[in-house]
Each structure stands twice: as C-alpha cells, then as structure tokens.
Amino acid sequence: MLTILIIICCLSLAYTYYKLYKENKQLKQEYSTFREHSISKEALTNEMWAEKFDAWCITKEKEIRKDSIKRSRSIIRGQATEHLAPFIMGNLNPKDFRFLGNPIDYIVFEGASDVTDGEEDEVLSVKFIDIKTGKSNLNKVQRRIRDCIKAGRVEFLLYNPDKD
Questions:
Q1: Do 57 and 95 share a structural domain?
Q2: What is the pLDDT of residues 21-68, one digit of tens each?
Q3: Are 113 and 95 in contact (CB under 8 A)?
Q4: Which of 64, 85, 106 is the last residue of a domain?
Q5: How far is CA 52 from CA 28, 39, 45, 132, in A?
C-alpha cells in the first residue's frame, strides 16, 4: 500500500510539474509576443525576464508542495477509511466482507458468517461496496459495473477444471 501511495504522490508531482512546464512555455510565448509588438528592449530586458521567472518559480513551488501534501493526506485518509469500512458500517457483519480492491472494494455476503456458524440457513444478500471519501466519485468502470448490477446482469458460475 505504501508503494502505491508513493507512486500516486510521484505521479501527482509529475503532473503538477508538467502543468508548470506548460505555463512556462506560455510565459515564453507571451514574452515573444511582447517583443513582436514593438515594446522597447529597455522595458523587457533579459534581467527583468529572469527576475520575473524566478519569482514565478518560487510561488509555484510553494503551490506544488501544498497540493502534493493535500493529495497525499486525501489518499491516506481514503485508504484508512477503506480498510476500516467493515467495522464502521454498523449494519453489516465485518466477517461477511471480502476485499477485492479493484475495481470494487468489497463484496459483502450478508449472512454468510451466520450460515458458517450454523445460526442461519441462507445468505440474505450479496452487496458490492466501493468506499469513497471527500470529492472522489466512481470511475467509468465502476459506474458500468454498478449499471450492470442494477440491470440484473449478474450470474453465478461454477467451474470444475477436472470435468473439462
């Protein structure tokens, strides 16, 4: 999990630096546009340009670091919530949860532990659960799985390789 977190943080930083690269490119274009429109060379000397660029880098670096920390905290909070969900969701028995992780976090066989313990004779329901925190939403694959389940396109298959 820590490796995934580090990879996500690195990707976040790479994306942010890519955005900075694009902004830098745009600033260079603006600089050349100023030159084309006959702005005097004294007004935009190389020194002034360098100072402007240095100031821009300093302000953006702080912004990048803040954004990276914010994303990292969100990811850690989401992962913690994901792992604690079976115990937080009071209406379901944590023993009935089965972790998948991707593309859906859990499948819950409601009542399966009671069947195993001999307290009940049937599983009440099968639930697909994905844990989301903050502003996160289902991705495209998760939405399609949700739609498939709602449409009733779910089946139980039994495979025995010895009989093939």
A1: no
A2: 888 888 888 777 776 665 555 555 777 778 888 888 888 888 888 889
A3: yes
A4: 85
A5: 11, 17, 11, 41
What's the confidence (pLDDT) of residue 114? Answer: 92
Q: How large is the angle between the packed helices 2-36 and 46-88, nearest 10 degrees?
A: 150
Asked if the structure places residue 33 within a domain, the reply is no
Q: How do strand 97-99 and strand 106-110 relate by DSSP bridges?
A: antiparallel
Whether residue 60 is found in the same domain as residue 98: no
Question: Could you tell me the end-to-end alpha-carbon distance of the chain, in angstroms, rounded to an integer?
Answer: 38
Residue 54 inside a domain? The answer is: yes
Structure tokens at 137: 């939403």
Q: How many domains does the chain divide into?
A: 2
Q: Considering the domain boundaries, does residue 38 fall inside one? A: no
Is pTM, for the whole model, over 0.70?
no
- Residue 109, classed as helix, strand or coil, is strand
Residue 126's pLDDT is: 94
Q: Which of 142, 141, 140 lies closest to 129, judged by CA?
A: 142
| Segments forming the whole domain that contains residue 104 | 91-163
The answer to whether residues 30 and 104 touch, using CB atoms and an 8 Å cutoff, is no
Determine contact, residues 114/122, Cβ cutoff 8 Å. Answer: no
- The arrangement of strands across the sheet holding 97-99 comes to 97-99, 106-110, 125-129
